[in-house]
Amino acid sequence: MTVPGFSQTITDFWRKQFLNGDVLYSDESFTVAINPALEEDSRVMVLETSDGRVMAVLTPALVDKIDLSQQQSLSESIFRQKLIEAGVTLHGADYLFYFSKADKNAMLQENLEGDLRRLTEEDESVFFEFTSSASEQDLDDAYVELDHWAVFGSFEQNRLVSAASMYPWKKEVQIADLGVLTLTSFRGKGHARKVVRSICKYAYGQGYEPQYRCQLDNHVSTALAKAAGFTLFGKWEVISPDSTD
């Protein structure tokens, strides 16, 4: 699997996730692989890359459960229907955004203006005031925490109004997952874009690829990803915690 424009770190990671087992079925648009090493919470996954190709991977137990082993011809729609018939539910898909190689280089050479800085544990009271001004829904959606691996903030008149945090996503890969939150009354002023690009520059300096995820119906977050310079890599689904399989 190679999606043009993205780093080898990213494409190698997703190749390992989806093509590291035995390929059960493959054509030019759809591939299914079996991988006994999948963790319980990812025992079936589907990835549609931005070029329209779809890959699925699942455990041998799920292959047997949805009766795929004798399937001579397969398509994404047939595969999904078999999951439904077996009571296997997928969680709502996430968009996956990364920087292309060209956009990464442009960002690293950019000088960001504004009151921006990295936050530390000494900013606990400032951060508490910030989160206290946000809704529970916004806090849940953003998942921005002061004790994450890296946290950056944007200030207006000495008040923290936007923050982004990152944590290493998986042990075996140098990818850092990103969350961002801007107080409602300060949105539309460029704070989120600048704080995202600031933390991403830091991540690259530490040898990590920034990753931006959001649900498909979160149009505000999708727009921010694009405004911050990210490019859509694909749509990713995993098995739902509520699945009855």
From TrEMBL:
Residue ranges crossing the lipid bilayer per the database entry: none
Top-rank lineage group of the source organism: Bacteria
Ranges where the N-acetyltransferase domain occurs: 114-245
A Pfam family per the record: GNAT_acetyltran
CDD domains: NAT_SF
The keyword DNA-binding belongs to this UniProt entry's keyword annotation: no
Organism: Brevibacillus antibioticus
Keyword Ribonucleoprotein included in the entry's annotation: no
SUPFAM superfamilies, alphabetized: Acyl-CoA N-acyltransferases (Nat)
Lineage: Bacteria, Bacillati, Bacillota, Bacilli, Bacillales
InterPro entries with a match to the protein in the record: Acyl_CoA_acyltransferase, GNAT_acetyltra_YdfB-like, GNAT_dom
Entry keywords, A to Z: Transferase
Full protein name: GNAT family N-acetyltransferase
One MF annotation (Gene Ontology) recorded for this entry: acyltransferase activity, transferring groups other than amino-acyl groups
